[in-house]
Amino acid sequence: LGAYLLEDRAYPILPNNMNRNVQQFYQNYRFELPFILPQALPKKNIHSITLVDTQSMVTLKGVTSDTVMYVFDHHKKKEDLNTTWTYNDIKTGACTTYFVEHLIEHNGNLSMVQATLLLLGIYEDTGSLTYASTTARDAQAVAYLLSQGASLKIAADYLNPSLSAGQHKVLEILIQNQQVLELKKKRIMVSHADAEFLEEEVSSIAHKLCDLYDPDGLFLFVKTKEGVRFVARSICDEIDVSRIAEEFGGGGHPRAAAALIRKSNSNSTNIETLERDFIASLDGFVNPS
């Protein structure tokens, strides 16, 4: 939304998969938002694409060798990122903050729904301004959005949503399969679940487990239809989960990261084998206090 508001001739494309709270917000306010599905794009060659908060491209019809690629991301630049793409390193807790700052420069007036969605973008990426990666710029952007009519009451309805029935079932399996390790005076929880029935994201389940058990590090392997979802959380500087997620082809932040181990990318997606091999290598990723 932020990138779209700064570009007159852009089409804001919805991702194919969205977290349940994002889907609910979109369903409730879609008539006041400009998003379209990929299949609704005009059947023309695409001049340029702007990727926000990611360095991965989905397949789109109309992409040619002349399509210009712009990336705005606050994650570490991938070593294999296409050298022809323009990479913009965002030095804030939330990518949304960068676009809000430019909207301020352009004196862009926002509707209540637009301001609230941008506020949610910042709150979701900074833990409502509590994560260590949060900057003063993020807080200043939130202040501006509140001045534009962003609703904290509406935002609160979509932050930290309750688990669905499927997520509750996976939570119970993960609790049953959990292993608690003591490494370099750090308490680490590792678990796995076979959950090919799961339609929703795993991140909310990880958040709930952190609330319940308060480990220094949490690592989950959840088998889904797409492959094995690896989700990692840390509450200390000694465990950088983004480095660990990179080993599985993923990434993220030092305190929260994820990867998708696709069936086609691995000789085996046996979660118990993955978990066992992971535990054997974990010591190298935990720094002494």
Task: Give a written overview of the molecule.
The protein has 289 residues and is an alpha/beta fold. It is 35% helix and 19% strand. It has 10 helices and 9 strands. Strands 4-5-6-7-9-8 form a 6-stranded mixed β-sheet, sandwiched between helices. Strand 4 (179-183) and strand 5 (186-194) form a beta hairpin. Helix 4 (112-126) packs antiparallel against helix 5, helix 4 crosses helix 6 (152-158) and helix 7 crosses helix 8 (203-213). The longest helix has 15 residues, at 112-126. The protein is globular, with a radius of gyration of 20 Å. The model has no long low-confidence stretch (mean pLDDT 91).
Quick take:
The protein has 289 residues and is α/β, with parallel strands linked by helices.
Question: Keywords, please?
Answer:
single chain, 289 residues, alpha/beta, six-stranded mixed β-sheet, three-stranded parallel β-sheet
List the helices and strands and how they pair.
Layout: H1 2-5, H2 20-29, E1 48-52, E2 68-73, E3 86-89, H3 95-105, H4 112-126, H5 136-147, H6 152-158, H7 165-177, E4 179-183, E5 186-194, H8 203-213, E6 217-224, E7 227-234, H9 241-246, E8 251-252, E9 256-262, H10 271-281
Parallel strand pairs: 1-2, 2-3, 5-6
Antiparallel strand pairs: 4-5, 6-7, 7-9, 8-9
